[in-house]
Design goal:
Helices cover 79% and strands 0% of the residues. α1 runs parallel beside α3.
Length: 101
């Protein structure tokens, strides 16, 4: 099913209708959480790419917090989130080392 399209409901049973409604609500919440994480990661990567150490340093904690929240809400798998956090932290540390030289 493409993103943003409603699920097709074949039966008109009360439980099927309720389950479909719950599914749509969960999808909306998950999409919002996923978007929040992706936006935070993009902002941090942009600051790292631009070479702005202070902005990247300020964005690191909120980004890691958003990733951790995505883990608790089952939007991201724990291993995937830990990989993101590790790579972002390494990139920031590399930027700091380059700026210190």
């Amino acid at each position: 099913m493409a993103q943003g399209q409603a699920t097709k409901i074949k039966k008109k049973k009360k439980s099927v209708l309720k389950r479909a409604a719950q599914s749509e609500q969960r999808a909306e919440v998950n999409r919002a959480n996923r978007t929040r994480v992706r936006t935070a990661i993009k902002k941090l990567r942009g600051a790292i790419t631009a070479g702005d150490v202070t902005a990247a340093g300020n964005l690191l904690n909120p980004t890691l917090s958003a990733i951790d929240q995505a883990i608790t809400k089952n939007v991201l798998h724990e291993n995937t989130a830990n990989r993101y956090k590790s790579r972002l932290t390494l990139a920031l540390n590399g930027l700091k080392a380059k700026a210190a030289k």
